[in-house]
Amino acid sequence: LNYYQNGTQRIGWHSDREEIGRSTPIASISLGCTRKFLIRSKTDGVRDRASIEMTNGSIILMENICQYKYLHSVPKESDVEEGRINLTFRCKEFESSDNAAGELATTEGELNHQKRDHWITQISTKMGALDSTAGSWKAGGARIADNYDGGDDDDDDLEAKVFG
């Protein structure tokens, strides 16, 4: 949980701890005022840059590979006077104590992750790298959706299902 009282508060360029799990994503939900979420490559800081407006209720899902390839930040914004809450969710993988090889146990949770990964792969092949009309961006394992209206039309369900 992070609370940004106003635009003077920020978090600098960083990547999250990818050792938490080998295949687990990090989900981040933004509540409150709109703030910029910046992404850039670790290699030179110039390639694969993105600036995403995280509005109230926006969700970003960063696959583990995103932490290896990219840095992200929330910059200062002097014109922002309202607060923002960021909720971050991570899945932790556990090793079985009776597994002498130290490999991950095949649990119901791990099977669910495999199903999710397969489903996300199918969905993401249908998503473009950048679709500004749908409010989605995808590169290096990050996906964002901010326009789900719950309808049965095709304008936003694809992005929302990634997070459902």
TrEMBL record:
Signal peptide bounds: none
Domain Fe2OG dioxygenase: 1-93
Coiled-coil boundaries: none
Species per Swiss-Prot/TrEMBL record: Skeletonema marinoi
Positions bound to 2-oxoglutarate: 2, 4, 14, 72, 84, 88, 90
GO MF, any single term: ferrous iron binding
Bias kind Acidic residues: ranges: 149-158
UniProt protein name: Fe2OG dioxygenase domain-containing protein
A GO BP annotation: DNA alkylation repair
